[in-house]
Amino acid sequence: MSTNVVAIVGAGMAGLTAALSLARHGIRSEIVEQAPQLGEVGAGLQISPNASRILRELGILADIEHRWCEPQEIRLTSGVTLGALAAVPVGAFARDRWGAPYGVLHRSTLQQALLSAVLRNPLCKVHLGCRIEKPGDTEIARAIGEQPDLVIGADGVWSRTRARIPGAPKAHFSGNIAWRFTMAGDNAPGFLDPSNVTAFLGPKTHLVCYPLKEIGGFNVVAIAAGLDPGETWSAEGSERQGRMLAEQFSAWHPEIRTLLSNLRGATFWPLYQAGPGRWQNGRDTALIGDAAHAMMPFAAQGAAMAIEDAFELAGLVANTPLPEALATYERVRQMRAARVGRRGAFNRFAYHARGPIRIARDLVLATRSPQSLAADLDWLYGYRAKG
Ligand SMILES: Cc1cc2nc3c(=O)[nH]c(=O)nc-3n(C[C@H](O)[C@H](O)[C@H](O)COP(=O)(O)OP(=O)(O)OC[C@H]3O[C@@H](n4cnc5c(N)ncnc54)[C@H](O)[C@@H]3O)c2cc1C
């Protein structure tokens, strides 16, 4: 039996990309989103070539390219001394080596570009302000007005759609907290670099900064070990959280400590990860994006993996009987996400290193050329998702 209509729960990167990817194969989708409108949730995103290649295929890249920045390098810098440790070239190098660009932008720029394309597409329909609480067949059919052939759970780290899949992953707190904020260029200290992504590394902490063209300023993310704040996604940073941040970065360079102590409007993001489990039920449901594999942002790949999942699932569903498509999707994508997860874990170990491990890390990095560091990422950025 062919797949004609798909219900997608969630209109984040995963859900919107899934709708466009299915439409490319002539498959109709109905997206159900709890938010009454899609606003400015989140902050900056790095979009690597493995994902921008798909956005180009879906006709989205042209819409965002003139609004994003293409950094020249991803730099690793000591957060204690501000000394350079290593750099991976991106910019023109990325286009040449991996066949697609590396860009940084506000999350809402990408979400709005995807949403506009979805709204223009007669095969896609969005139901805003509609939360799926118990994702049984009756509630899904009530939400979209018909019984779908397939339900895609693109409803993020707290996914309710997981309840349709016995043995689906569960989310757990990673022990790390991110503080995310943006700042205007004229207020920014001189060590923030408008041409590059900079990851400042320190003991048990790191800080990532990159330019955002949309605001003429910077996106800053500070990540450190923290307390478990319970089931919540983001919240305004409180005074207590501000003190926690200052304590965690107390060994850092004074200029960075000053930046963090003057923070206004930072949002506080406890970082959750999805554990192992099934991503499909062999019949009529699959999970994509954070619902399947919420991961730590140490490799900056969560949204990229959501985009790859959506594109590959659509291709399989269009060309293979559903149970087989779902099984292949799970096998192929779990292998890919596991490899990305291992890279993230490696970055976490290297970024947050202390004492002798930090000294060894710095010595090893000093021997590596930018090209050899880039070659280590061929499997990640050079990946060509099959849609
Ligand atoms: C600090 C930080 C930095 C990051 N940086 C990067 C980066 O640089 N590059 C990168 O690729 N990734 C990055 N990520 C990861 C990335 O943001 C996520 O992996 C990605 O946004 C996940 O997309 P998604 O569509 O799966 O989920 P979400 O974006 O969470 O979307 C889920 C959608 O489902 C809706 N929803 C949820 N439950 C229901 C329900 N019951 N009924 C109806 N609707 C529902 C939600 O409202 C939401 O719109 C970062 C993450 C963090 C925390």
TrEMBL record:
Flavoprotein among keywords: yes
Record-linked Pfam families: FAD_binding_3 (PF01494)
Keywords: FAD, Flavoprotein, Monooxygenase, Oxidoreductase
InterPro entries: FAD-bd, FAD-dep_Monooxygenase_BioMet, FAD/NAD-bd_sf
GO molecular function: FAD binding; monooxygenase activity
Cofactor dependence: FAD
Superkingdom of origin: Bacteria
Domain FAD-binding: from-to ranges: 6-341
Keyword Flavoprotein included in the entry's annotation: yes
The protein's name in its UniProt record: Salicylate hydroxylase
Organism the protein comes from: Ciceribacter lividus
Phylogenetic placement of the source organism: Bacteria, Pseudomonadati, Pseudomonadota, Alphaproteobacteria, Hyphomicrobiales
